[in-house]
Amino acid sequence: MTPADEWNRIVPENYKLKIIFFWRSNMFVIRNVFRCKPGQAKNVIEKFKAVQPIMQEIASHKIMVDEVAGFWTVVVEVETEDLATFQKMLHERGSDPRIQDAMSGYLDFVESGYREIFRVVS
What we know:
There is one protein chain. By secondary structure, the protein is an alpha+beta fold. It has 5 helices and 4 strands, in the order H-H-E-H-E-E-H-H-E. The protein has one domain (26-119): Alpha-Beta Plaits, CATH 3.30.70.100. The chain has helices spanning 3-10, 13-24, 41-55, 83-94, 97-103, and strands spanning 28-36, 60-65, 73-80, 110-119. The chain has a 4-stranded antiparallel sheet, with helices on one face. Helix 3 (41-55) runs antiparallel to helix 5 (97-103).
């Protein structure tokens, strides 16, 4: 009996697609969360909007602001298929003078922040 025959014997037909999808899922969602100083979220948003066209070349980006979460929270959400390639390109883009100019001083508006990385499973 071949491995494929064994697979077909053991795994019910209706589970095969789910197992293959889960196994091959390589989409990641990265959320960079910035807790801004009081009243400074709009300045952080403007900085990220200025670099969004350049950053879209790396991966799909969304800029979000709190609606009912903690006040003055800005989230930059990114989707990527490969974390290593994304990190490499992000590092390279960080050396881009256009991005450096547009983002200069953004830390003056931020109190703290953190990053969340999720693997999409469904």
